[in-house]
Amino acid sequence: MDFDEAIVTHGHWRIRLLHLINGANRKTYDQYFVRLDSACDLGKWIHREASAFSRFPEYPALLQEHEAFHQSAAQVLRLSAAGKLAEATVTMKEGAFHQASLRTITASRELRLRIAA
Q: Which of 32, 37, 80, 92 has the fewest CB atoms within 10 Å, i.e. is most exposed?
């Protein structure tokens, strides 16, 4: 996986969770598993392949932002499971989930730029 693939893979979470909130996805998600930042494809890449770049200050920032992203994804699941679909949608589109997603993408791009320099 490269940086661009990692960003695309990361974006799949948004689609899955929006489908869950809208009822288009009947799959159940374990909140504990979703909180794990090392279990998704991006997390596996960060913890394995991208760890070769751990000497750069952008790497721990990416780890931190990706972990925060997974915490916010678990929050979306909690809200959805509690029937708070409007609140879950706001969190997804403009709240904590949205912000954590943007920060994760930005951190990934910053690490890519550092490596390219």
A: 32
